[in-house]
What does this fold into?
Amino acid sequence: MADALIFATLNGLVTGMLLFMLASGVTLIFSMMGVLNFAHASFYMLGAYFAFAISQQIGFWPALLLAPMLVGVLGALVERYGLRQVHKSGQVAELVFTFGLAFLIEEAVQLFWGRATQDFRSPAALDFALFTLFGQDFPAWKGVMLCISVSIFIGLYFVLTRTRTGIIIQAAITHPQAVANLGHNVPRLFMVVFGAGSALAGLAGVIAGPVLTTFPGMASVLGSIVFVIVVIGGLGSLTGALVASLLIGLLQSWAIASGLGMADLLALLGVSFPPDHALRDLWRLTLPQVAPLLPYLLLVLILIFRPSGLFGKRES
Amino acid sequence: MRALVLWAGFALVLMVLPLIFDSVLGVSILNQMAIAIVFALSYNLLLGQGGMLSFGHAVYFGLGGFLAVHAMLLTETQTLAIPLVLIPLAGGLCGLCAALFIGSFSTGRAGTVFAMISLGVGELLAASSLILVSFFGGESGVSADRTFAPPFFGVDFSQDVQVYFLAAAWLFVSVLGMYLFTRTPAGRLANAVRDNPERARFLGYSAGRVRFISFAVAGFFAGIAGGLFAVNYEILTAGNLNAASSGQVLLMAYIGGLGVFIGPILGAVLLTLINSLLNHYTTLWMLYLGLVFVLTVMFLPRGLTGLLMLHRVPWQQGRLGLLVRPYTLTAIPGAVLVLSLIGLLELSQRETGPFVYLGIPFAPGSAVSWLALLAVAVIAFVALRRTLPGLRAAWAEASAQSPRSMHEGDAP
Amino acid sequence: MSVLQLDNVSKSFGNSAILRNVHLRIEPGERHAIIGPNGAGKSTLFHLISGRQQVSAGRILFKGEAIHTLPPHEIARRGLARSFQVSSLFAQLSVFENLRCALLWPLGYGYSFWHLLSREKALNARTESLLDELGLWQRRDVPAGELAYAEQRALELGLAIASSAELILLDEPVAGMNATEARQALALIRRVTAGKTLVVVEHDMTVVFDIADRISVLVQGELIASDTPAAIRRNARVQEAYLGVPVPAGGQHA
Ligand SMILES: Nc1ncnc2c1ncn2[C@@H]1O[C@H](COP(=O)(O)OP(=O)(O)O)[C@@H](O)[C@H]1O
Ligand SMILES: [Mg+2]
It folds into this structure.
């Protein structure tokens, strides 16, 4: 039991920090530009695919650097030539635009790489167990993932609190008008933030691609979860995004590991049902089964009872 | 009077269509169109009329459809004999109930919060549909046989044409119903709340209540569309209520145009047509669809009908003729450019064998084929850049208004 | 009984107190003007009365009943209508539809989905007479968002008065209009609010002294005087509050 718990926690941490790399970008973009970027997870997917293509040519480590940069440039271009154009038509149009973009990127990925899963692997040099606990291996690559995402978190924190640009960004989050009035080039700032957010998502894709498999559906698998996180944490709150990322990562990981079922729960209460009862689906439910549901349930509940999220100060 | 003529004309068209397109494929496409139109119009009640961006409208379509299949199964097992013509109504009522429940907590806010709740509910249901096997049938879905239903005046609905007339009748009733709804106080207030919920409140209207009513009506008609789907295909799967399905209806409504009542109809007709025809020729049609969609959002925020509506001013001023020449001049290089780009994309997808495109054989992997298409594309692009300014100037001239209204148009 | 009664009303945003202990009584049939420099809190006062914002302390009674806890639509239904300083219209709807929307509740349609608007003769006749009264007849089919500034202001006024509420709050109804437009708008306001209670925020002193039979002066969130126009003119605190510059009788105030 203890070993399962420790591993579930470690895996939850890895997933949570990975989710945060995406959620932080969505949060920054939302708080500055008022756009919930549906295509954010698509940039994550592009990161994985670009890295896969590059690593086949010149190896994994250059890809780790080049792929996120490429994705970042692409993101900046999308902001400059797409989103800015749509901005005139209002918030709904922007949301619909990013939705369409996600759709388009998924199709484009299939155009270039097909529908099949790509054989994108972490570097062979890291194919060993970082440590072994209770007879279970913890792969080194997951350690690297954790290192990278934690350093990104620290880096982000540093940039936002210690650099000039970061402080302007923070100001623009709360008082966009005031920042524009101070003479800062807000459109360019938007482009930079959008590009940087996309690059972060791309990096997340590079490191997650080998573990979570690189296939055309990988964006939609993660995309909705990232939204859930951003909403639960509170739209526009980075702290909230961090807490919610870890929460969701750990919850899912524990739920899957526990293997508990409704039947166990009912048995605990001394209740049992005939196997052909009309509601049989309900108590055959197991936690691993409902694990994918939990985030959405949480999302709906949060939006109903506390639309500003756990840490947020404002609604939409 | 004019309205009566229009509706009679609509009914007549619905009657005549299966006589013109009487092939198996034709009737099958007509049935799909009828379903898509009802669904897209119901979506427009939310987004176009009420300003609610939903990413989960397939929930009501799907639930209505699943209930309809179960209703058909009841008839099949002879528990309850429901005439097939009433099955879509059962779907509609199911959609209505679901919308009443979900609307009760989701319509309090519009904008991003509403969109997110709709997304969450959609994902929740899509995921549950794989778990709750007894109602949703798991991966394989639930199927029924419509011919078990008691015959309706001797019609047993064993043929698709018979189903078409059932669908057309429901289509007519639904389109009429939704059109009339937009002309009632509740429908008009939905527009007002879309434009300015705050002001509506100060006039005595609860914005949430107004949205709730539209939401319920939209759920009802989406359920009818789902019921029609059940009757037509006799099967529903989890794919009918998932995010992709919700995305499709958003695409239809948006590409057709949200501003005008017939916009989504146009979108549904076009997309169904493209979907079922292009499907046979290319594996890339979803990519094209995505491109068209993104470009529409960027350059035609009011969709295709919006583009048509732009011509109202030139038309009223009798200057539409000015546009014919520049339109033709731009259309030719434009079409050539699009076709050559499509050719390039398609060529990239072929690995072997001659690829015959527009009657011309191309060879995948041959540099000549690639270069030829590329050259045509570049030439067309250059030509387009030269004809565009002429079109722009012609537009300015054709749509120039009298000085008085120009001045007012410029005012803040 | 007063139509409107504010007892000890305060409002603060965070740490900054915007309104402090405001007491105000408005009697039936009164035409009351509220004046004060920019940022004094006049619009905020209207927001509190109409339910757009919540009071931080104190209470507001309308016809003897507490309304400060009600949502805006409930307050509006009790017969309190307001206009906005910045026009707040239904941009995509035509002028005609804007006004018709404002009439649906007062005429008892509610959220009906069993009436067809085009069939409701009385409703449409009321809308048209309102259009006529506002001088917007020729613009009836133009989307509100495309109107000229003065026309938007006229429509804004139209939405406020459509319901024939007992108490009408107008926030700077003629600001930004030229002299002719302002004169017409004032005549209109006087005509349509006859027999009702009117509270108006206005900057133009000519207008204020012309229209009001009582004036309240709000300075930095405090109501420093509430009296007849003549008394207000003589009031030393008011003159001082206006930067020490005595208000010339009937003169313009920027
Ligand atoms: N939502 C708000 N948050 C913080 N301060 C506000 C808010 N609304 C108004 N204020 C402040 O309250 C003061 C009064 O504003 P307002 O009532 O609009 O003044 P007036 O209408 O008299 O010109 C101003 O200083 C304004 O900055
Ligand atoms: Mg003001």
Summary: Residues 37 and 329 of chain B are 34 Å apart (CA to CA). The first strand of chain B starts at residue 142 and ends at 143. Strands of chain B lie at 142-143, 235-236, 355-357, 360-362.
